Amino acid sequence: MASPTSPTVDRAATNGSVDEDAVPGEDSSEVTKLFAERLQAWKHAVAYLEDYITATEKTNHAHGKEYERVLKTVKDPLKEGHHFDQALGGIAGMFENIRSNTQGISNQHYETAKQLKGQVLPTFERLHTEIKNKSKELSKGAGKQSKAVDKARALTQKHIEHLGTHTASFDSTGGRMTANDDPYVIQRGVLYRLNKQVQEENNNRQDLISVQNSFAQFEAHVIQTIQHGLAQFLQVISTQCDQTKAMYGDMVGASQGIPLDFEWNGFVQRNNTILIDPNAPARSVSNITFPNQDHRATKPIIAGSLERKGKIMRGYDTNFYVVTPSKFLHEYKTDDNFAKDPVPEMSLYLPDCLVGAINGQKFNVKGKDVSKGKLGNSFSMSHELAFKAHTPDAALTWHKAISDACGKLTGELPESSTPTSPVAGKTSPGGSVAGDAKHPAPLQTEGLSKTNSVTSPGTATTTPGTTATTAATPASAAAPASGVAGEPGKY
User: Fold this and answer.
1) pTM greater than 0.70
2) 216 partner at 20 to 30 Å CA-CA among 155, 176, 198, 272?
């Protein structure tokens, strides 16, 4: 047997689309971690201001000597300082201004401490709490969505590896495998899970874009609150001497000179390779490729809709059927891969089945439903299934595709629309001869095995010791390649 080769995939872009990996190697939580770290930076920046105001209030009790403690609260560089623009006019420049002016304040009045503690400090405490709540909102929202993306990607990768295992064993076993291991079935499962993964990725992407957009507004609010708090601080200090007032006015002027988008624009520019581009297109399953996607075992021999007679109501129901290279006849409710997990409603292993002759648009197949696994197969019974195609040409095409994979054929015709008696001239199980030739008998498959000899008129004969028979179908059963021009093998 020739070694399997990977099919050639045309990766040329169509309508501007590009092929993408089914499971990207990127870290889905990278953006979330970046925003969490940035919130930490803002939280520490506000904490610096809280410490500063608190120390200022305490320093007013101890006058000039205690003011050295105020300077220590802003002495060290900002935590996560790389998140702030080091140029003048930003948050880092504002703290530098605070350090230089605080050094010049050596005398404070006692009554200033009461006003600082009751009016200015609560503003920054509330802002600190808002930043903490924003961090919790990020971890519970985008953080959880990132975990859902990672989980969906892991599940997709597992099924892609499962598909690779069974497509590889397809050639080594000659295509004989269980229905659940059919590469066609596994591939549809991959597409189902891939669709759920892409939905999770797109939902996560939209959440992160919303977070990203909200951060600009939130940071503007943070800076506005800082400006407001320091403005209150100025009002408290304005009653002190002219020198102290001038120094604090300089600090507030530095904070109010910060444009609302100054730090955000610098942050976006420094991290433009990590942040999400809102104008980039969302992922689509149609643009994604994965291993063995076009393996020949995943391509159906024929697929389309057929009508099958029910067991109870005896009416015909339309379902989607497919004959795979693994020689299975699978039944689905629809051909939709995304509405629900596309598990076959019924699966017939055609080499173990018996197919009858065509009667117009109708033909019968007798076999076991093997879709429930090995345990279910050992206890299941053979059933005679009556199919009806939409046209006689379609019936010929389906019959030929099924016959090519079937183990045994018979010339028995299926029941007509209003059966009243067996076909005239055929011998009944009791030895009598039917007299009505207008209503052919149902497919006689009871007791037929690979070693029995079938001698009914119009049926194929199997001699003892053989494993298959030659179809003795009527001349009209020679099916064309396709019943519909331009769509070979599909109805």
Assistant:
1) no
2) 198
Domain ranges of the chain: 23-270, 299-417+452-477
Both structure tokens of 389: 């195609």
Q: Splitting the chain (491 residues) into consecutive groups of 10 residues, what average pLDDT does each group show?
A: 41 46 63 86 93 84 72 79 80 83 72 86 91 82 66 77 79 76 82 78 73 84 93 82 82 89 88 85 87 91 91 83 93 90 90 90 90 59 88 92 81 60 37 38 40 34 34 36 39 38
Tokens representing 31 are 């953006």
Residue 481: count of CB within 10 angstroms of its CB? 8
- Sheet with strand 316-323: strands edge to edge: 346-349, 328-332, 316-323, 302-309, 383-388, 362-367, 354-355, 408-409
CATH number, domain 23-270: 1.20.1270
> Fold match between 23-270 and 299-417+452-477?
no
408-409/354-355 β-pairing: parallel
d(CA 462, CA 470): 8
Euclidean distance between CA atoms 191 and 284, whole angstroms: 12
Task: Quick: pLDDT tens for 343-390.
Answer: 999 999 999 899 998 999 999 999 888 887 554 555 567 888 999 999
Q: What is the DSSP string of 95-162?
A: HHHHHHHHHH-----HHHHHHIIIIIHHHHHHHHHHHHHHHHHHHHTHHHHHHHHHHHHHHHHHHHHH
Q: Which fold has domain 299-417+452-477?
A: PH-domain like (2.30.29)
Per DSSP bridges, beta strands 346-349 and 20-21 are unpaired
Quote the tokens at residue 337.
Answer: 């891969």
The conformation of residue 437, written as its DSSP 8-state character, comes to T
